[in-house]
Each structure stands twice: as structure tokens, then as C-alpha cells.
Specification:
Length: about 350
Amino acid sequence: MDKNFHDLIIINKDNDSPIYQQIVDSIMEGIMQGRLKENDQLPSVNFILREYGIARQTLIKALRLLQEKGIVKAVHGKGYFITNASTAVGYRVFVLFDTFASYKEVLYSAIKDRFGESAELDIYFHHYNDDLFQKLVSTALGNYTHYLILPYTFSGINDALKVLPKKKVYLFDIEPDNLTLQYQGVFQDFYKDVLSALVTVKKDIQKYDSILLVNRYNISMVPKGILNAFNDFIATNQINGSIIDSLKGRQVAKGQGYIVFDDEDLVYLIEECNKLNLSIGHDVGIISYNDTPLKKVVADGISVISTDFIKLGEDIVDMIIKREKVRKYNPSKIIRRGSF
């Protein structure tokens, strides 16, 4: 097998991923592609050392890691063999979300359903904690075939991601504006889509005396693209509007329109309208961000600006299965219901 092995292991010494990890990843990839099967013998240690010019301890570390995973076994006097190809045939996927929310559950379910029985998923949350993000990513290295990450902008994002094999990293939903490398993935264009949504309902917005965007999101961060789109829209169209940080202490009144992100703010507005006998969608307008099944039925339906999270999840899984190294755009749109 030695003569066919030279193109199976891919080592890039300029890659930030350790060489032993590149060896592990190459063996795993070979199994997933069907090039290595159960009971196949790996080339001798001496052949690999000679072929790739790597240190013996580096190769031994890679082989031990494969043994610990139950993929390779050592047979005394003969060498190393693939012992359980089924262990690596499926996908083992590291999924890193920012926080938990109802729409994230929809997204995760779409990812899980698209993989079906072919993948084992481990889900983690970074909660916009820089140290936690870096720790979760570094700990995940070498334990998964692919890494699905919902990132955010912080000073250490590039160092955090570069420890992972780039071709196995798929970013989704948000693309930090300070990334120095381009990663494959599925992204939203927050500025473009929010501006388009607001233009679509411009006449409805003009029915209200003012439109307020509540820049508060307990479980996440409002992307800058959304805030910029809102500011440009009200300026260009001479709309009486502003961005506020909280609804606390604010009197809800007839003639006001709201764009909210946090579900607590949505509930507050609905309760206040009910207490003041204000008609939602007529006296007070409400647009919520990110759709959930509940928003379809609450208060005769809540109008939303939202991407299709099911499609986002399916697209990113399809990219992995088809081994596509591309960047896709997942659009958002306004869904008009009774609240606006």
C-alpha cells in the first residue's frame, strides 16, 4: 500500500493546525472517502517518516490519538491497521452557537434533521465570552470531523479560529467584520435585507407618528448592519424615528411603531397594549426580529423580519456533505402579519 499512500496524507507546514492533527484528519478523511477500509494496513512508520520528513514523536502522537478514538490498532511485529472504519464514516460535528433562543432551536433541528443518522452533533454556547469561545474551540480541536461555528466580532477571533483546520470550519449566520481569512459558510447580509424590508413596509411605517428600534437583546447582540440600515432608512425617507436602548419607563402610546429583538420587549408591548386597550397593528405597530412558531399565532400574528433558519441549516449541512468550499447568502425578508 505504500506506493498509493503518498497522496492520502496532506501536510501543510504553513498551516496553524499541528502536524499530528493534520495526519489524524487525513486518515479520517481517507476513511470517509472510502480510500481506507477496515483491516487495511497503514504504511510503516519508517515509510511515513521518510516520505514526509516529520519527527517520529509527531507521527506516534497522531497514531496514539487514532488508537484512542478506536480507529487504528497496533499489531506487534506487523504495524498499524484500520480497526473500525465505521467509527469515522459518519460525521462528528462540533456546533458552537452564541446563545440559546427559540429560533436557534429551529436552526439546530434543521442541521440535525439534514444530517439524519450520519452524524453525531455536540452543541456548545459561547455567550459572547471571549475566553470561553477560545477555550471551547481549542478543546474541540481533533475531536471532530467538522466545526460549525456561529462567531462574533472580538479581537481574538482570528487567533481562536486559526487553530482549527480551515477546510473543516464552516461559519454561519454572522461573519465578523474583523476576520483576516475568508471561511466557507452561509451568511446573512443584515444591512441589505433590513433596508429592503423597511422599504417594503415604508407606507405602513408612515402611518405612525414615530418608529422606534429597541436595541436590546438579552441573549444576543444586534448586528451593526441592522442598526445602520435603520438609521439610513429613516434619514433617507425623513421618517421620525430613533434607536433606544430600553423600553423601561417608556409609556406606550397610540401612533407609535416598534422594532424589537428581545422577546421580553415583545411581551411587554403586547401586555401594555392590552392594558391600555390599544389595538396592535392599528394604534401601535410591532415588528419583531427572527421568526418563531409562536409569533405566527400570538396577537393575531407578529410581523417579523427573519431569515429562513431551516434553509440556513440545510444549506450548511449540504455544503459539508457535498464538500463544497463556497460562501452562500441566506436572505431575510419581512413577513407581514397582524401586528404591523
